[in-house]
Every structure is written in structure tokens, then in C-alpha cells.
């Protein structure tokens, strides 16, 4: 009996996964930038949810070949953990910071300053967790190289762009290089724009890779009997 084994099934799985994940990422980026009235007042939460679902789709795949981490434990766990953390970190920060500041009064400079310092430490800790998960996820995707080169490094490029966008305005503010508050505010306003652009870039890249012609060849072999 003649059996035909091709890369067709794997290609279809990747195409389904990468188009679905890519559309979710693009939608997430657009919602992040949408005015509240166009997003029914839920732009942030819905955008985060779409990103998390998209990341989960990329990690697990709609079929094993579609997984950008090849379903290997470290990379897959890191992507899923990052997606879940993105969903939980916002509500967690709101709840914990409200609890820390509940008994504080701006009139009590000592107590208020202490509690504000704790909130700052909380913010920093949450950012470190996010960055650590993102580094593990992007490095694993690059190393596993299920995504064709050089786009297997695209998540790492996006991460570098987002980190730079967040660090640069803060570094400039601390250094006092810009005295004009309007210019400084404009720099900080670029952070969500660059973050959304990075997510959109990943989404568009995934869609383009999914729809481009596959390079695999058909392999025909005879099974015993």
C-alpha cells in the first residue's frame, strides 16, 4: 500500500494557528489604541484578554505543529505563564495597591510616603516578573526555531523595542535631560504606542508567514505489506 506523508498537515496546523494568533494580536493592538467610546469602555481589559488568548494559541497550537514552542515544556510554560500573568497582574496590582493605601492620608507624610514606596516596590516586582517570563519565552521561541528564520527572533525584537520604550523616558526624566514637561509627557505617551506597534508587528508577521506558500515537498513512501 502506498502512503503519502507530506508536510501538508503540519502546514495546515501552522496556518490555522498563526492566522488565529495573528488576528488576535492585531485586534489586541488596535483595541489598545482605540478611544474608550469605540471599545465600549473595555479597551484595556479586552485588549489584554485578546493578547493572552493569542499567546496561548501560539504556545499550544491548533495542532502540535502549530505551536511556536513545539510544545516543549520550558518555552510553552513561559508563554502561557506570561499570558496568564498579563491577565492577573492588572487586577492584582489594583487590589494590593488599594489595600496598601487604604489607611494612608496625604496629610501623614511619613505613613503615606512609606505606603507609596511599597506600591512602587510592588510595581517594580511585577515588571520584573513580566520581563523574566518574556525573556524566557522569546529566547525559547528563537532557539527552537519552529518559526522560520529570521522571524523566530521577532518576539525578541519586539521585547527589546518595548523595554527600550519604557526605559528611555524614565532614564531621561531621572537624568533631567528634558526640562519641558510637555516634551517629557510626549515621550511617555509613546510607550503604549510602541507596545501596541510591537504586538501588531508580531500579529502581522504571523499572518504573513501563515499565508505565504509552503516550501515543503511531498514525500511518498511504501509501507510494509
UniProtKB/TrEMBL annotation:
Q: Which residues cross the membrane?
A: 17-34, 40-62, 74-96, 116-142, 154-178, 184-211
Does Transferase appear among the keywords? Answer: no
Entry superkingdom: Bacteria
Locate the coiled-coil region(s) and give their ranges: none
Keyword terms of this UniProt record: Membrane, Transmembrane, Transmembrane helix
Q: What's the name of the protein?
A: Integral membrane protein
Amino acid at each position: 500500500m502506498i502512503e503519502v506523508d507530506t508536510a501538508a498537515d503540519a502546514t495546515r496546523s501552522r496556518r490555522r494557528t498563526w492566522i488565529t494568533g495573528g488576528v488576535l494580536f492585531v485586534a489586541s493592538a488596535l483595541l489598545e489604541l482605540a478611544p474608550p467610546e469605540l471599545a465600549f469602555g473595555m479597551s484595556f481589559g479586552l485588549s489584554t484578554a485578546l493578547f493572552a488568548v493569542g499567546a496561548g494559541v501560539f504556545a499550544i497550537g491548533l495542532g502540535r505543529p502549530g505551536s511556536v514552542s513545539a510544545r516543549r515544556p520550558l518555552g510553552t510554560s513561559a508563554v502561557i505563564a506570561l499570558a496568564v500573568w498579563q491577565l492577573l497582574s492588572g487586577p492584582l496590582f489594583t487590589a494590593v495597591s488599594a489595600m496598601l493605601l487604604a489607611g494612608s492620608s496625604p496629610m501623614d507624610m511619613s505613613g503615606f510616603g512609606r505606603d507609596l514606596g511599597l506600591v512602587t516596590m510592588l510595581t517594580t516586582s511585577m515588571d520584573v516578573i513580566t520581563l523574566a517570563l518574556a525573556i524566557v519565552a522569546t529566547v525559547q521561541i528563537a532557539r527552537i526555531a519552529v518559526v522560520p528564520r529570521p522571524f523566530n527572533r521577532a518576539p525578541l525584537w519586539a521585547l527589546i523595542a518595548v523595554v527600550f520604550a519604557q526605559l528611555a523616558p524614565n532614564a531621561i526624566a531621572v537624568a533631567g535631560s528634558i526640562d519641558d514637561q510637555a516634551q517629557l509627557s510626549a515621550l511617555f505617551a509613546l510607550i503604549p504606542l510602541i507596545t501596541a506597534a510591537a504586538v501588531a508587528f508580531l500579529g502581522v508577521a504571523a499572518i504573513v508567514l501563515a499565508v505565504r506558500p509552503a516550501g515543503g515537498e511531498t514525500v511518498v513512501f511504501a509501507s510494509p505489506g
